[in-house]
Design a protein that fits this description.
The protein contains 13 helices and eight strands. It is α/β, with parallel strands linked by helices.
Length: 395
């Protein structure tokens, strides 16, 4: 498979400030307004670690009036988005600051859109039961301050939201209008992430890029950023998991995550993400990265055994650290080695209440809610294939 240099759309309008201490430079940046709604998770870490207070101080130093919305769940819900959008209107915010991980940034993007548009979020969803309406009005500008290294949402134009009424977890897009205008990527804010979640988040970033690299829509630009992300995660994620205060490792994983966000703009993911979103749509407590890890070996084994792009699997194996890789199966070995090095090779679906009788419905859900990613697969993936991947992953 030879990528085509003619098939990519390059427009990444986000101004990124990257590096340790970057949060302290927030007040120096050009901000898109004077009233901000700061969106954080419903957990305690953003407050307990002082990140919220520091962010508010930086914004106030810049002359910005601040309100806070603190209700975003992992795998954020549609109703939470609508409540946050109402909060933005109530405080007359002219921009939104997302302070947190991928769930917070995704939810904040959807809030930014619904703060300026009528109706319900699902009116504007283009997949599944969504209303498929284009947004009439531009969203509020978004500033993304990431406290994790997982989704790359600080440099991409989409957000993933769950509708619990329909068990759909799918993407919200509005062209490039949902791209953050400013991203602060400060690895010092990631030191507090526990080892397991460092691994979950890091593998989410990894799979954005492995999926993109094997996609039939791969191109020269996506290859460039995908391999960079894979190399940095393969070398540094195990270090960050086992020594969370190692700033060199945190910086490299944060950089890989940033690259994986770009990868999604240059190319996009494949059906691995669709299959996982179905898992966590039915089991919201399942961390997205953990779900990806659970299905990863069976998922990639399927395409290796199907004979898809073997030279690309060899290149990814080498990027993950297996320098002597010579065949596609070596990627499976390299991936298994990194999973084990990060202590996440024994994750169990059953620990989250998932049962095999759910797999047919989940396969259908993956196709209906996130079917657009299947079009990127290097070979067709049938409903039966999806069920088999779930079944082989089950513990």
């Amino acid at each position: 498979m030879i990528p085509s240099i003619a098939r990519y759309d390059f427009n990444i309008p986000t101004h990124t400030v990257f590096g340790c201490g970057s949060l302290s430079k927030l007040h120096e940046q050009k901000l898109p307004g004077r009233k901000a709604l700061v969106v954080i998770s419903c957990g305690k870490s953003t407050r307990a670690n002082g990140y919220l207070d520091r962010t508010i101080a930086e914004l106030e130093h810049a002359g910005v009036q601040v309100s806070v919305f603190d209700k975003v769940q992992p795998n954020p819900l549609k109703d939470t988005v609508m409540e946050g959008a109402e909060a933005a209107r109530d405080c007359e915010a002219d921009f939104i600051v997302a302070l947190g991980g991928g769930s917070v940034m995704d939810a904040a993007k959807a809030m930014a859109m619904m703060a300026t548009n009528p109706g319900d979020l699902w009116d504007y969803v283009m997949f599944g039961t969504g209303g498929r309406k284009p947004a009439e009005n531009a969203p509020l500008p978004l500033v993304a301050i990431t406290t994790t290294a997982g989704t790359g949402s600080e440099t991409d134009s989409g957000g993933v939201i769950t509708n619990p009424d329909t068990h759909e977890k799918t993407a919200v897009f509005d062209g490039h209008r949902l791209m953050p205008v400013l991203a602060i990527v400060d690895p010092e804010l990631m030191v507090s992430v526990p080892p397991a979640f460092t691994a979950y988040q890091g593998f989410d970033a990894l799979f954005h890029s492995t999926e993109g690299y094997m996609s039939k829509t791969a191109n020269y630009m996506s290859d460039l950023v995908a391999l960079g992300a894979i190399e940095n995660i393969g070398r540094y994620l195990p270090v960050a998991v086992n020594d969370g205060k190692n700033m060199e490792a945190r910086e490299h994983v944060a950089y890989a995550n940033w690259l994986s966000g770009l990868q999604m703009e240059f190319n996009g993911c494949t059906s691995e993400h669709s299959l996982e979103h179905a898992l966590s749509a039915y089991h919201q407590e399942l961390p997205h990265g953990a779900g990806l890890i659970m299905i990863s070996m069976a998922y990639y084994r399927h395409f290796v055994q199907a004979g898809c792009c073997p030279e690309r699997f060899v290149r990814m194996a080498k990027a993950l650290g297996k320098a002597d890789a010579a065949c596609a199966e070596d990627f499976l070995t390299a991936l298994a080695d990194v999973l084990k090095a990060c202590g996440v090779d024994e994750l169990k679906m059953s620990d989250y209440g998932i049962t095999p009788d759910e797999f047919p419905a989940m396969a259908d859900n993956a196709v209906s809610a996130m079917g657009f990613l299947f079009a990127n697969d290097p070979a067709p993936l049938s409903r039966e294939d999806c069920i088999k991947i779930y079944t082989e992953s089950y513990r």
